[in-house]
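Researcher: We're teaching a course module on how sequence relates to structure. For the next exercise, students receive a sequence and then see the predicted structure as C-alpha cells, so they can try to spot secondary structure elements on their own. Here is the exercise chain.
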Amino acid sequence: MSMIDTPMTAVLGHFLDLSAYRESLISSNLANIDTPGYRARDINFRQELDRADSGEMQYASFSPLATQVRGLIERPDGNNVSLERETLLLAETQMKFNIGVQVLRSEFHRLSSAIHEGSTS
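Model: And here is the predicted structure for the students to work with:
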C-alpha cells in the first residue's frame, strides 16, 4: 500500500469510476433515443458504491450492474428513453463527478502537506 492509497482515495476512486460509468450509460440512452424497442439503462449509484467499497470484491474485477429502468413512459415503438430525464441525470452526474474530483484534489493536497511538513522537521 502506498501513501496515496488511503481509505478516502479508494472511496473517491470508486465514486469517480461509477460516475464515469453512469455518464456512459446516460450517453448511450441519449444516443438510442430514436431506436425502436430500446430500454433506458442505469445503475443504482448508492448501492453500487456500497458494493464497491464493501471489501467483498477485488477492485480489478468490479463491474457495476446496469439494469433497465422501469416505470418510464414507453412510446408506441417500445422505446422508453426520456430526453428530460436523461439530460437531468447527465447534469447531476457531471456535477457529482466534478465535486468528486475537487474532493480528491483536496485529499492529495492534504497528503502532500503532511509529507512536506514531515520532511522539514
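Model: If you want an answer key for the exercise: Helices lie at 7-31, 45-53, 83-119. The chain has one domain: 7-113.
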